[in-house]
Design goal:
Helix content: 25-40%
Strand content: 5-15%
CATH topology of one domain: TIM Barrel
Strand order of the largest sheet: 3-4-5-6-7-8-9-10
Largest sheet: 8 strands, parallel
Structural class: alpha/beta
Low-confidence stretches: none
Distance between the termini: 43 Å
Radius of gyration: 18 Å
CATH architecture of one domain: Alpha-Beta Barrel
Number of helices: 10
Shape: globular
C-alpha cells in the first residue's frame, strides 16, 4: 500500500495530501463507498453538511477497524447556518450525524458575501468551535483573497485550509500563492473539472507518455503542485486508480504542458456571487 504524503497545517495538524471525496454520493451508498476507500488505503475523507451523507461517512469510519486517529475527517458548514448560534448548532449536528467525538477539519462551505449574514460573524463562531477542542482545525472553502483579508483584519485565528475549485482549466495560481504566503493550505475540489479535462489532447499526450490514465496524470499534477486533492468515485477500480499516484513523477515539461491549459474556466459557481441556501 502506498504511503500518502502529509502536509502540516499552520497549527501543526497533519493532513493527508490525497483523500476521498463523497460529493454527490447518495446517502444510502456512502458507507459502502467510504468503507471501500478505507480498505484501499485512503485515510482522509471529505464530506459536508450540504451533501447529506455524513451519517454514512461516520458509519464507515466507525466500522473500519482503523484507529480513529489514523483517519482525517473533514466536513463543512451548510449555507443556511451562518449566524453564530446556527453555526454552533450545525457543528453539534455534524458530530452527532458522524457519530464521532471530534472532527479533524471544519470549513465554512461558501462565503455568501451577498446575503445578510456576514461571514466574519460565521468565522468567529468557527473560532469558538476550534477553542472547544472538538475540532482539530478550521478553515474555509471558496474564499477569494479579499474574503480572507477581511478575516485577517477582523478575527484572531487564521484559516488552516482554503478549499477552492482547481483543475488544469482553472489553475488558480494567484490565489494559491496568496494562500501559501499566509500559511494556508490549498485544497482542490473538482480536480479533473468533472471529467472535462480528461479528453484534452495535451492531457492524453501526457498520460500516454507515462503509460497512465488521464485522471492519474491530472491528479499527480495537483500532488506535485502541493494541492490537497480528494477525487470521488463509487467504483472500486476507479478508487484504486485514483490512489495509484505515487509510483511516478511528472517531469517539468509535463507539468508545464498541463499548467498551460489554464483558461480561467470554472465548472462551479463564482464565490463572489453565489448565494444558494438549501431549503
Amino acid at each position: 500500500m502506498a504511503t500518502v504524503p502529509t502536509i502540516t497545517l499552520n497549527n501543526g495538524v497533519e493532513i493527508p495530501q490525497l483523500g476521498f471525496g463523497v460529493y454527490q454520493i447518495p446517502p444510502e451508498d456512502t458507507a459502502e463507498a467510504v468503507g471501500a476507500a478505507l480498505e484501499i488505503g485512503y485515510r482522509h475523507i471529505d464530506t459536508a453538511e450540504m451533501y447529506g451523507n455524513e451519517k454514512g461517512v461516520g458509519e464507515a469510519v466507525r466500522n473500519s477497524g482503523i484507529p480513529r486517529d489514523e483517519i482525517f475527517v473533514t466536513s463543512k458548514l451548510n449555507n443556511g447556518f451562518h449566524r453564530r448560534d446556527d453555526a454552533l448548532r450545525a457543528f453539534d449536528q455534524t458530530l452527532a450525524d458522524l457519530g464521532l467525538e471530534t472532527l479533524d477539519l471544519f470549513l465554512i462551505h461558501w462565503p455568501l458575501p451577498t446575503i445578510d449574514v456576514d461571514y466574519v460573524e460565521t468565522w468567529k463562531a468557527m473560532e469558538e468551535i476550534y477553542r472547544s477542542g472538538r475540532c482539530r482545525s478550521i478553515g474555509v472553502s471558496n474564499f477569494n483573497a479579499h474574503h480572507l483579508r477581511r478575516l485577517f483584519a477582523e478575527t484572531e485565528i487564521r484559516p488552516a485550509v482554503n478549499q477552492i475549485e482547481i483543475h488544469p482549466y482553472l489553475a488558480q495560481d494567484e490565489l494559491r500563492a496568496f494562500d501559501a504566503d499566509h500559511e494556508i493550505v490549498t485544497e482542490a475540489w473538482s480536480p479533473i473539472a468533472q471529467g472535462k479535462v480528461l479528453d484534452d489532447p495535451a492531457v492524453v499526450r501526457v498520460a500516454e507518455r507515462y503509460s497512465k490514465t488521464p485522471a492519474q496524470v491530472v491528479l499527480r499534477w495537483h500532488i506535485q503542485r502541493g494541492d490537497v486533492v480528494f477525487p470521488k468515485s463509487v467504483t472500486r477500480s476507479r478508487m484504486e486508480e485514483n490512489f495509484a499516484l505515487f509510483d511516478f513523477e511528472l517531469d517539468g515539461d509535463s507539468m508545464g504542458d498541463l499548467s498551460a491549459l489554464d483558461r480561467n474556466e470554472r465548472t462551479g459557481p463564482d464565490p463572489d456571487t453565489f448565494a444558494y441556501i438549501p431549503r
